[in-house]
Structures are given as C-alpha cells and as structure tokens.
Known about the structure:
By secondary structure, this protein is mainly alpha-helical. It has helices spanning 2-20, 25-32, 41-60, 82-98, 102-108, 116-133, and strands spanning 72-75, 140-143.
Amino acid sequence: MRPVFGFIAGLLFGLGLIVSGMADPAKVLNFLDLFGTWDPSLAFVMGGATTTAFIGYRLVLRRPSPVLGTEYDIPATSGIDRNLIAGSALFGLGWGIGGFCPGPALTALPLGAPGTLLFVPAMLIGLWLGARAGTLSFSSRKTEP
C-alpha cells in the first residue's frame, strides 16, 4: 500500500504545482523580480504550503509511529554549515536563472514548458556529479518524536 499512497501523494503534489503556477517559469521569475514585473501571487501559494506543512507535522508527530511505517525518518543533523549555505545559494541561483526548482521542473517537463528540456538533464547531471564528488550526503537517523 505504501507505493500506492506515495504515488497518490506525488500526483497531488504535481497537480498542486501546476494549478498554483509553480510549474510556469515565467510566473516564478516574475515573483523573483522584486523591482520589475513583480507578481506576489506565489507568496500566497508558499504561505499556504508552509501553514499546511506546519499544522500537518504537528498532528502527525503526535502519533507514536507513521501510519505506513514503523518509525519516523528524521534528518540526523539540524545545524547550519558551509555545505548547507553553499547548496542553498546554488539552489537559489539556479531557481532565479532558470525559473525552475526540481519539483516544478519535473512537473513541467511533460507539459512541454520552455526550458525544461535543457534544465532537467542539466539538473540530473549536476546531481550525478555532486554524488560522484562526494559532496552530497543523505545520512539520516531513525528516531521517534
């Protein structure tokens, strides 16, 4: 059942990205252009998502274990270090230049959005190179809340 619910959650997330306009690079770039053609509508999308996630985590983490698992998978680190800052800066630069972040880019790919045929392969190559260089680490610890 876990893969089925994962697929449904991913499908809802992708549809949400499309409906909200996050899969449209022009809308994203207009949101980031504070001194030009600024479009504040994505701030409401992000605010709604943040509020939903905040409430959802508070409700879910009250449970002794996840519904479809035996224990929570919580990141091992919570500190801010050089790798986090560098990764955040690269993510932000890429988003600002291309108008895409990974989720919306993958969602926009089947829609034929301009730029996705260049952005998605470049993103995948960058992820592969980062993993080969050993700069990406996905360590986590299994803990209960």
